[in-house]
Amino acid sequence: MTKPTDDRSASTAQHRNEAARVSVRCLVFTVSDSRTLATDESGALMERLLVEGGHTVVERHLLTNDEAPLRAALEAALARDDVDAVLCTGGTGLGSRDRTVDVVRPLLDRELPGFGELFRSLSYAEQIGAAAMLSRALAGAARGKFVAVMPGSRAAVELALTRLIIPELKHALREMRR
User: Which helix (H) or strand (E) holds 161?
Assistant: First the structure.
């Protein structure tokens, strides 16, 4: 697949260069009924990848798959002045306890369908085949913050962070703040 060489790619490159000056402060949530902070490999990986990508992780929390506490934690995160991005892992499947997407979606001012589409496409092609359709990964903007929800596996977190979120996080924030 070749990359476009027209004015759109030049514009995107300019936007990325301008966005490089943006400092991104992230809050990480792992949603799980079975993990502890000590056993939360996905959340730990997300934190490490964000820091290695030049971002700051202001806090990392573990939450259960209960709607009310999850909504309260997300509302509190979105109200913080020291947070630019809220990144969640877990609770994106079809299980009866998978509630993260159901809680996050109504909080979004704007949804970015391309995130979920690209995540599932990459996941299909590079990791799990047709099982990728079982993910409800999503991203968007809420109260001036970038919000992303991805599956709870280490492989999913690595894919979402390295291929989608880290390369475009500063650019997305730049666009949201214009």
Answer: none
- Considering the entire predicted model, what is its pTM? 0.87
What domains lie within the chain, and their CATH numbers? 23-177 (3.40.980.10)
Provide the b/e sequence for 86-102 (b: ≥16 CB within 10 Å): bbbbbbbbeeeebbbbe
End-to-end CA distance of the chain: 31
How many Cα atoms are found within 13 Å in the side-chain-facing hemisphere of 155? Answer: 8
Which 3-state string (H, E, C) describes 117-131? HHHHHHHHHHHHHHH
**How high is the mean pLDDT of the chain?**
89
Cα three-residue angle 151-9-162, rounded to 5 degrees: 25
